[in-house]
Amino acid sequence: MDNDRPDPDQLLARVERNQMRARRGRLKIFFGASAGVGKTYAMLLAAKEKRAEHIDIVVGLVETHGRKDTAALLEGLEVLPPVQIDYRCTSLYEFDLDAALKRKPSIILVDELAHTNAQGCRHPKRWQDIEELLEAGIDVYTALNVQHLESLNDDVSQISGIRVWETVPDTVFEGADEVELVDLPPDELLNRLKDGKVYLPQQAKEAAQHFFRKGNLIALRELALRQTASRVDAQMLDYREDHCIREVWHVNERILVCIGANALAERLVRAGKRFATSLRAAWIVVYVETPELQRLSAQQRDGVLRILRLAEQLGAETVTLNAPQMSEAIIKFSNERNVTKIVMGKPTRRGWKRLVLGSVVDVLISDAHNISLYLLGSPKPGQGDDISKQETALYRKNPLPGLGKRPAQKANSKGYVWAVIVTVASTALAYLMFGRFELANLVMVFLLGVVFTATRFGRGPSIFASFLGVAIFDLLFVPPYYSFTVGDSQYLVTLLAMLTVAMLISSLMANVRSQAKVAGHRERRATVLYAMSKELTASQSEDEIVRTAVHHVHAEFGSRNVILFPDANGRVVYPVSPAIAESLHTADLSVAQWVMDHNEIAGQGTHTLPGAEAIYLPLSDKATMLGVLVLLPVNLRRVFLPEQQKLLETFLGQIAQAIIRVRLTEQARKTQVAMEAERLRNSLLSSISHDLRTPLATIVGSASTLVEEDNALKPEDKRELNRAIYEEAQRMSSLVNNILEMARLDAGAVELNKQWYPLDEIIGIVLTRLQKRLADRQVSVKLPPGIAMVFVDAVMIEQVLVNLLENALRYTPDGSPLDIMATSAAGTVDIAVADQGFGLPPGDENKVFEKFYRVRKEAAQSGVGLGLAICKAIIEAHGGSIRASNRPSGGALFLFSIPQPDTPPTLVREDQGRLIDQNTIGQP
Amino acid sequence: MTCTNPVVVVIEDDPAIRLFLRTGLAAHHFKVFEAERGQQGIIEAGVRKPDLIILDLGLPDMEGVEVIKSIRAWSALPIIILSARSAEQHKIDALDAGADDYLTKPFGLGELLARIRVAQRHSACSPAQAENGLFVTGALQVDLLKRQVFVAGNEVHLTPIQYRLLSLLIKNAGKVLTHQYLLKEVWGPSYKDNSHYLRIYMSQLRQKLETDPTRPEYLLTDSGVGYRLKVGSG
Asked: What is the model's pTM?
């Protein structure tokens, strides 16, 4: 690998970081070793200086603790009033984030970065408030003591013996644009303390006395100085990288921190963090869940979950691996991810156990060739080996509600009863065999029982069965009988071997069982995901997707859900579509809006608005926010277990993809419709302008001649002109009618008024309407015998026939005959209008129904080209079809079919009062 | 008919159409009074003692149907309505409210004069049958006293309902009768929704009385509105 060249990915990351910074506000931290060193004072002094430079600087929140010289500095600075939060009968005053965001100064002062907000505030921690201010592009000045730094938490508690609960993630400190160390020698600090210049709350005084010992202060000061120095170092490195000073280009380190379900985990994570920071390397925290570990109690597993989330907070990537062998999984993962250093705890197994059963560390030492191993000492034995009893500082304030509430698994009492039954049965069988078979065979019978118990009831009962079996065997079948004493020492070997084999079997079978369970879980998750994605793919609308999503999220996470979408203004609104059984009705829109704006998770069990009842998850595709999935869980475990969390993420991704797909489809469809409409509008305009102008030209011309040349015109000329006006006006009237009719049909404003009509009446109306124009034509009408009733909108069908006949009149030679034919069959009626003209141009048979199609475009006596399009629209509105073809004997034939109801109308026969059907109606 | 010129009140808001009606009707010796609005029209109808009212259904101040109802409250004088195409329901409403006939815009003077003639004939008291109970149009002859129907001299047998339908059309010859009206008069009020009864009987009548039922000479259909019996050449 060529290490001389800057890694392009890293360069890109830095460019992105710089761009982010340009938009983001700048964070300046006044950093001190302990309270009383004068951070607030220094901060206010800096503010004064900025004020003098006419920079818009505002004090968001500053604790003067009644110190006069500090309070004096506040004069002349704009101070935001704090917001009052009523909590359990007491009023607390907190920093008003919303007011600050609204005020939007250039710089804002917010003291006490590590402060924990009162319940009811948007964020549980002040550093989160500050993050939001920075996001909004506001520069922030704040103050921080070294003991509040998350990764130093351990060291500080070791030095001072006091555990600090209020911590700030190192990422915040590292992300600061400027850190100003406010340093005060310990002696001076102690003097100030003596003079009462250091503020201490009354109840903390005693603890503080212990805290402010000189030794402590020196150690803390050293920590603060070291922390600042390492930052300076990091800045130097950044500078060198930026300027391509190659010699110091460091190799790409990647650190893997392996944690287990024990007390060491948290220390490992913190140590890993410090290690990673000092090496400026990426770090991954991995937890390998072997089948053995899956048997841990729920509390212990929750403990692991907490540590993983702490690691995430500290900037690590966290991974949970499911594997039968811890060492194997770690090596495989390390190779995949190019891990260079592994940090883990010292082996817990000692002495012969380590020799016999081996240890992960030993395997790694021998098998992981290119990886350096770093081992961290275990805490003293007996000092809280149980991870569940520990609480990480980060989570003390907001423990995951619902976690740890799972009822303790009931002792598998049924399994133990069965273990007894199986052992008794084995004993009975062995008793029958006793004397006839070798003792070794009787041992086999007991082992069989253990195997059975292990497969069915797991480890506990089968170990129990092992001991029970060995005891009974000893009691009944090993001389001296009915006594636990063993006569012959060779039986001792038999008993020992039997016990060992039984235990091994128990252990192996239990592993097989739990592996099967893990595989089952994994398969179930895959099935659930497959089922949802299949249904999502089939969903055609956003509503359908939402329903599918809500249903599946409920099925998997047991929660009531709702997906909220923003309106046109980007404000999240309640859904309009009807709710389904699994829908949630109590989503908090303001929380959802926050999630929508920040593309981050919020709500219960998270770090933003943890007071909310539900969990609010952003539904986004890359950078585009689509909406918010609100989830009201019954049990938080089902959502926050690492594997479930990953599943939920996949769910969110799938849902977002489906929504995007539907939206794109819809958009494409709309574009096409718009294009089609545009095309139509254009051809309509050009057609109208041509076809309406032609008759208008005649009318205007003739009329103007009549008005202006009245005296000069001969009476017969006048009559001729008048006739022209009349005829052209008639023609225009029919054109306008067609255009309006088409517009009406296109707008979907036409409601069919279907009734039963005699076919001859409809034909009669049409022929009467066209009487004059058909005068020189021979029209033959062939109808079914009797009175054929059709169920149609007669006015519409008349229009179809009129248009077809007018079309025939227009395109056939004068005097050529026309035919109207109708046949009716069960469920359908066919009506045809045929001529004996020139026919249609071959290949154009179906184009004739397109809007503005004309056979001969240049023909003077043509319509707008809408007549047949209107026919098609009307027939299709009737659910029928229309076709054009050329007759074999010459001429065109237009045929339309309209589906008919199965039951014809009934009629009371007047003489007999009996119902008769349509076939007999016509007979007089 | 009276020997003085007949008086017509035109209620129409469009000046161009008023001009056309005024000049056209004046040429045929009608005395025309105009009203732009419904209220004004009702007053004109009361003051001018007209023989006929021509009413546009689309007036700016009130519904045409309201004008008809208002006039019908005190007078039976003939009312011809003018309406736009594709507004069948408006025509039916107006006819059911008491209008005598309708014309669809655009229309020619000839059509208007024919409708006026029919309306005047009705108001002047029933036509042909008044004399001897004999109604004649073209080859169709109906003896209303003996209840006998002849087509070109040959007697045609009708069922009671067919005859009732025909006699109703004869009584209102030339005038359009709505489906609702015919159903109510022939079958009774409870048959109002069975308009296919009416159509079937009309079809049967055509088959018995017309030479070619698809080119009817007497029993004409006003599409979507109703039926009328054609009289004379008008």
From this structure: 0.46
Q: Dump pLDDT digits (tens) for A624-644.
A: 888 899 988 887 777 777 778
Q: Tokens for A564? A: 């909220």
**Of the residues B63, B89, B123, which one is the last residue of a structural domain?**
B123
pLDDT tens profile A460-504: 888 888 888 888 888 888 878 888 777 778 888 888 888 888 888
Confidence of residue B155 (pLDDT cuts 50, 70, 90): very high
The Cα A130–Cα A95 span in angstroms is 10
Burial call A756-782: b when 16+ CB within 10 Å, e when fewer: bbbbbbbbbbbbbbbeeebeebebebe
Domain residues for B149? Answer: 129-229
Whether chain A has a CB inside 8 Å of the CB on B23: the answer is no
Class level of CATH domain A251-396: alpha beta
Looking at the domain assignment, is residue B102 inside a domain?
Answer: yes
**Residue A144 and residue A173: Cα distance in Å, rounded?**
9
- Whole-angstrom distance, CA of residue A783 vs CA of residue A772: 23
Structure tokens at A851: 């809007």
Burial of A684 (0-12, 13-18, 19+ CB in 10 A): buried
φ/ψ region of B99 (left if φ > 0, alpha if ψ in -120 to 50, else beta) reads: beta
Kindly report the nearest CA distance between residue B44 and chain A, in angstroms. 32
B45 shares its domain with B90: yes
Would you call A733 and B106 a contact, using CB atoms and an 8 Å cutoff? Answer: yes
The C-alpha torsion from A157 through A160 and A165 to A170, rounded to 10°, is -60
Looking at chain A, the domain(s) classified CATH 3.30.565.10 span 750-908
Using CA atoms, how far apart are residues A906 and A921, in angstroms rounded to an integer? Answer: 9
Mutate to test the interface with B, among A735, A774, A787 (most CBs of B within 10 A): A787
Q: Do B214 and A794 touch (CB under 8 A)?
A: no
Among A250, A200, A182, A165, residue whose Cα is nearest residue A46 = A182
A763 touches chain B (CB under 8 A): yes
Largest CA distance in chain B: 55
- Determine the pLDDT at residue A409: 44
Instruction: Specify the CATH number for A8-247; select among 3.40.640.10, 3.40.50.300, 3.40.50.720, 3.40.50.12780.
Output: 3.40.50.300
Q: Give the C-alpha separation, A181 to A300, whole Å.
A: 40
Domain assignment present for residue B15? The answer is: yes
- Candidate from B88, B106, B214 with C-beta closest to A763: B214
Q: Which pLDDT value is given to residue A1?
A: 43
Q: Within this chain, do residues B104 and B172 fall inside the same structural domain, yes or no?
A: no
Contact assignment for B214 to A744 by CB distance below 8 Å: no
Residue B118 maps to a domain: yes
Helix/strand number for chain B, H first, E second = 9, 12
CATH for B72 = 3.40.50.2300
User: Is the Cβ–Cβ distance between A631 and A559 less than 8 Å?
Assistant: yes
How many domains would you assign to chain B? 2
Query: Cα separation of A16 and A24, whole Å?
Result: 12
Mean pLDDT of A697-714: 85
Mean confidence (pLDDT) of chain A: 79
The CATH number of whichever domain residue B203 belongs to comes to 1.10.10.10
Of A765, A767, A921, the CB nearest to B200: A921
